[in-house]
Amino acid sequence: MRKALSLFVSALLLSLPAQAEKKNKDAERLKKCGEVLEEILGIPDNIPQELLDRAECVVIMPSVKKLAVGFGGSYGRGAMSCRTGEKFTGPWSPPAMYRLEGGSFGLQLGAQATDFILLVMNTKGADSLLKTKVKLGGDASAAAGPKGRTATAATDAYMRAEILSYSRNRGLFAGVSLEGSTLRQDNGANEKIYGRKVTAKQIVRERAAGVPAAGQPMLSLLNKKSPKNLSD
């Protein structure tokens, strides 16, 4: 009995550094979301302010990996924040961690890391992302977002889209289509960030968690750059 207990305690102690390392990685990723957002919003020809002001939620995916030869796949992890309040009119919520997964055909040699920002433009899109798994272009309509200081280039297709997406790769910033990719809650990362099991809906809609230190830069920037929801 004592031997079994000793082995259990030893295994537990050995697992603690690994758990701490994973938590630190998730915190670093969340911090990176704020850095990527600041860098992209600092680009002269960036996301139109009027679109940011009409967004219900923002999803940031730093350093999404794209690997393979012949058949390409992509995988990334990041965070989403939504405006609080019943009608998304309040300050930005604590961040919920998310995963982005997708595949693409074509010859792709080597690996690339791309930053993505997704604007969720209406309540339907926000509700879709609070489900377990959402396919862009299927469960939620998606389009490459227009860029520039104004959204005068936005067509009816842009205005009907529930999610507008942008990418930055090797210094180039542009709207990009992510149709066929999927977004899902990163439950493991949320548990490590907040210290308990908590869903994305509980984080962003039900005020079940406070803003972690690693998420403060991201939230401060969103509240500074777009403090009010100007959608109709």
Q: Could you spell the SSE succession in H and E letters?
A: HHEEEEHEEHEEEHHH
Category by helix and strand content: alpha+beta
Count, helices: 7
Q: What percent of the residues sit in helical stretches (DSSP H or I)?
A: 25-40%
Overall strand count: 9
Shape: globular
Terminal Cα separation, in Å? Answer: 67 Å
Low-confidence stretches: 7-21, 105-110
Rg over CA atoms, rounded to whole Å, is 19 Å
Q: Report the sheet-strand fraction.
A: 25-35%
Whole-number average pLDDT?
A: 83
In short:
This protein has 232 residues and is of the alpha+beta class. It has helices at residues 2-41, 49-54, 123-129, 156-160, 187-194, 200-204, 216-225; strands at residues 57-67, 71-82, 96-105, 111-120, 133-135, 142-144, 163-169, 172-175, 182-185.
